[in-house]
Amino acid sequence: MTGLLEIRNLSKSFDTTKVINDFSMEVVEGTICCLVGPNGAGKTTTMDLITGRIKPTSGQILFATDDITARHEHLIARAGIGRKFQVPAVLRDMSVRQNLEVAYSRQTNPFRNLFKFRKEGLKEKLDEVATLAGLTDRLKERAGILSHGETQWLEIGMVLMQEPRLLLMDEPIAGMTESEIEKTTQIFKDLRQSATLLVVEHDMGFVRNIADVVVVMHMGSLLAQGSIQEIEADRRVRDVYLGEQEAA
Amino acid sequence: MGNLYHNKIAQWIVYVVFFAALTIIPMTVSDSFLLNQLATYGVYGMLALSISLCWGFGGILNLGQGIAFGLGAYGMAMTMQMQSQSESNPIPPFMLNNSLDHLPLLWQPFQSTAVGLVLAVAVPTLFCAAFGGIMFRARVSGPFFAIMTLAMLSAFYTIILDRQAYTGGVNGLTPPSSFVFAGVEVDPYSPTAYWVVLCLLAGATFVAKLITQSSFGLVTQAIRDDSERVRFLGYSVAGYETVIYTVSGLIAALAGCCWVMLVQYVSPAQLDVGFSLSMVIWAAIGGRHSLLGSILGAFIIQGAQSYLGDAFLATWLLILGGFFIVVVRFLPNGLASLVESGLGLFDRQRPTSSPAPDGGRPMPAE
Amino acid sequence: MDLGSLINALILGVSIASIWLIAALGLTIIYGTAGVINMAHGELIMLGAYSSYMLQFYLGLPYLLCLPVSFVIVALVGLALERGLIRYLYNRPLDTLLATYGVSLVLMQGVRLIFGSDPKYLAVPEIFQSNVMIGSVSLSVFRIVVLLVTALLVLALWLLFYKTRFGVQVRAVMQDKEMAASFGINSSRIYMLTFALGAGLAGVAGALFGVLAIVLPTMGASYVVQAFLMVVVGGGSLAGSVVASGVTGELQSVFAFFTNDTFARFIIFVLIVAFLRFRPQGLFAQAGARR
């Protein structure tokens, strides 16, 4: 079984500081992989590297066996990688509906879109995602006025509208209530039928519920990889990460 | 009901009524000088429209729209100049004064009216596509792009000023006779000239309005909101920015052609920084998020300026500057936003009415 | 082209560079600190020239005294401008650009209404009007004065920004406004003072330009675009503007030697656009400041 996403010997330095250091991992198709680690371990930087926001100093990123290293952001997105940002990034001046509509990006060519007024399948998809994200009643609202939890949902909804093969979720449940977390857990599990997820999350309870595989990062490198039981039993992980969480 | 201002059908009705009203003018105005002046307002309206499209919808502040306008105007002036030259007298007089004894290569295509017209529109448009493409690909945006357009405008201004033998230098070009197209003379003081301008203005507005309501328009608005986020949805931000900047340049180039047709004159003053900035002022005061608002902004400001006349020009510009500051500070979306909030008040009085048929758009195209 | 004339062009280039630089100095301070794109900078220069004119005409002040007094007058105008308008627009860079253009219209037309459109002239001591030979170049003494004043101001600014407490505060605000605030630095006050300082520098430039060229209400317009380009090419730092002006002045002088002055300016504009395409952050990018 080969990974949908393969990261090979990835390194990234800012000036002289090595933020990512010879990091390798893979995400198998149809699974949920959780990326955990203490603050500053390089999780978000890894996401930035995968989505092309920053370019690696060395190493390779393969998506569905295509080399996507250092491609432009929009090409990586088109290849089938959707991303939810750590600080929810929605289009604040536009309505919830417009946010979802823009995210429905089957046709990205500016010339083809110039005089295009109807998008095939948009209505069904939008209804489906809005229902899933619980935003059906909020479609007309301006995205800027949504609560924090709703904004998180909207951005997850936007990623779903993109219909990506791989979803990158950077701290999806931050700021959510217990019941919202429960709902997210269910949705993520459902998503696994059709897509693959790479989730960065601090909440170990949530990770325990959804993760097929857990990858632990520390100081920009791979510390451990395995099932949640294996990770929780791992001494090194307890030392650098889990122990710290218990203390907090 | 929703705010009527955001109702697409209502918007189209207002646009149709507006242009219908403009078609009545030539039947009521008999003063040909006034008609010519009204037609030049149409040209300013096209320029304001182009700024509204680029800046209001695309979020790209262009302080160098004079480039597209000026290049279009020079192309048209060259075409008209060559129409006045004959086989026996192929060289425009100002070139002879600059001791050129043959027609420069640059001018030769303009001997044909059709080729000249195509070049007058195509050159500025292609320039915008190339310049915009290069800049947006390098992710130059916001105030930086504005300054780059200023620099480019200054570059064109100086080169036209400098190459006197080819451009007429500071005196510019003054084609001696009216534009002749397909055997028909377009007298700048005739209703025909007015109709030409009105048709182009209405056509450009129609196309621009369609663009803002299409999928393309939605993406450009998203880019205006947060260009970084839109990249991760799979859209080439540079591609969209280049297209809207180029379409805007195309409209300005058409305006340049019309302008020369109406006034039979072009000089580097049309590429002056001040003129490009006044286009921005028209759109800003009228309301850059509204195509119609911007056009009306140009009409009102230029209308008031010529109505008050040269004697009050300094006072008028002083007031205009002050008013512009107030608008930017307190009314960033211009006078059109007053209409929007006015209609919004009307809507709030009837909160129980049925939901809008088109789903209602909070921050939409208009 | 022989070596001698190239050296002449280079010497003349230093003088051109000093003019580009002094026009850009005030803008550098304002843009570098607060990120404000002040389109009224040209009109502040114009006000400096008119201040000197008034000081001479009504008070009979000697020219050299006009320089510092013009500084103070225009600095006060800048202060009023910052308090009355700019401070409301700090997080809206495009709007600042537009609003300051409105200010430039108001200032230009206001001056035109008061003083009329006819040119005014500044009187300078006779010695400034003579020429000196440097190598084989004949340069007016006044251009050397401009060069000296520019050098003096750059030195003073360097001392102010790198050797005083105020300078430390300014740089702290540039780096991180919130962080600076937590150390008890009042960023609003810093912005106000730097804006006034930048305006004052424009005033000095105006007092000098009023002699190099004639004093007109529209004189500012010709300086603002080139001043901006120096600041943007330099990246908003003092050293950046010095280097940018130096290189631009020399290039312009050399190009002008081959062609003519106007064409040289054209080449400079195109080169700057090309340069910024590949290095949008300018020569010396600095943290903060930018947007």
UniProtKB/TrEMBL annotation, chain A:
InterPro entries: AAA+_ATPase, ABC_AA/LPS_Transport, ABC_transporter-like_ATP-bd, ABC_transptr_urea_ATP-bd_UrtD, P-loop_NTPase. It holds the Pfam family ABC_tran. PROSITE patterns: ABC_TRANSPORTER_2 (PS50893). The keyword DNA repair does not apply. Residues 5-244 form the ABC transporter domain. Transmembrane segments: none annotated. One of its GO terms (cellular component) is plasma membrane. SUPFAM superfamilies: P-loop containing nucleoside triphosphate hydrolases. Keywords: ATP-binding, Nucleotide-binding, Transport. The keyword ATP-binding applies. One of its GO terms (molecular function) is ATP hydrolysis activity. It comes from the Bacteria. This is Urea ABC transporter ATP-binding protein UrtD. It comes from Ancylobacter mangrovi. The lineage of its organism: Bacteria, Pseudomonadati, Pseudomonadota, Alphaproteobacteria, Hyphomicrobiales.
UniProtKB/TrEMBL annotation, chain B:
One of its GO terms (cellular component) is plasma membrane. Pfam families: BPD_transp_2. Keywords: Cell membrane, Membrane, Transmembrane, Transmembrane helix. It is found in: Cell membrane. It is a multi-pass membrane protein. InterPro entries: ABC_transp_permease (IPR001851), ABC_transptr_urea_perm_UrtC (IPR017778), LivM-like (IPR043428). The chain crosses the membrane at residues 12-29, 41-60, 67-84, 114-136, 143-161, 193-211, 232-262, 274-299, 311-331. CDD domains: TM_PBP1_LivM_like. One of its GO terms (molecular function) is branched-chain amino acid transmembrane transporter activity. This is Urea ABC transporter permease subunit UrtC.
TrEMBL record, chain C:
It is a multi-pass membrane protein. It is found in: Cell membrane. GO terms for biological process: amino acid transport. It comes from the Bacteria. Belongs to the binding-protein-dependent transport system permease family. LivHM subfamily. One of its GO terms (molecular function) is transmembrane transporter activity. Keywords: Amino-acid transport, Cell membrane, Membrane, Transmembrane, Transmembrane helix, Transport. Its main location: membrane. The keyword Transmembrane applies. This is Urea ABC transporter permease subunit UrtB. The chain crosses the membrane at residues 7-37, 57-81, 93-115, 141-161, 190-217, 223-247, 254-276. Pfam families: BPD_transp_2.
